[in-house]
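Repro:
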Amino acid sequence: MHLRGLDLNLLLALDALLAERSVTRAAERMHISQPGMSAALQKLRWHFKDELLERVGRGLELSPRARELVTPVRDILDRVRELTSEAQSFDPGNAERLFRLGCSSFCSDLLAEPLARRLLREAPAISFQFDDLLADTLPRLFEGSLDCTITLAQRLTLDPACVDKAISGKPLFSDRMVIAVARDNPLVGDTLTYDEFCALPYVETRFGGNFTSIGEQIVRRQPRRPRVRFWLPNFQQSLSMVAHSEMVTLAPSILVQRCADALGVRAVAPPLALPMLEENLYWHPRNDNDPGHRWFRGVIADIVAEIVAEQTVSSSTRDLTESELGEGCRLAAEQPA
């Protein structure tokens, strides 16, 4: 590797290329032209004597050497930011920065509209990107290509990517899983026994095609369980499927309530014990004291608090008694530590 000519701008370009794995997206992230980013990539290849990004099919993948560089490059840039005045203060009204959040489509649907309104009003030069919650979300959080993720507290105890890793987080909200059915489903009344549940055609939600919700995992462990007729990649598609059929699915109560009128679905209490869904916001500890990152996390927490404050347990969950549903969706800060 040659150090001569390897300046901070090239390191920033390298960080963007490693995170995006695309010259076009890296250029957009850096607010430069695609030819400019291509030229930076050529310089980086000369410096490191490595292709860094290799053509695989129609896309680009990181070379083994590039994968080794992901964390060190991000650590160097984090240290540089700590030494600059930008790291000591953050003005969202003037700052240019991209924030990336990994979360389920359920959470992105909740957050997207109010987040867009707030960013356009308070931070016109801030960009934001939602990434799907996938099996590699937590590894990407550790390597720095995601700023934050919203996921269940229970998932961290099950994910091998979190073993012996430090992670920072804060609770956002809690919710319950319910059985979602079409409002006019003739096979389901106000209540549902477990035998009746097992006899119904079932839609399973499998995020990214490779992992399921905590509720689905509990159903799978039962000696008897409903026959799965369809697998869909997010709760919204599962709700759309049951809305026009006699099938049923498991979904968060807050989502069923929000979709009740638009889709014509209703909620029924699950006939088995399911844990509360504790949705938390997680980030890498290196960003604990980054003013911009703290602002971003605060915006997410504020928006969630507003959504929860607006939420009731009346319209779509009218089929549930208070004892069956409990308190429904709650702001996590209201729960005991």
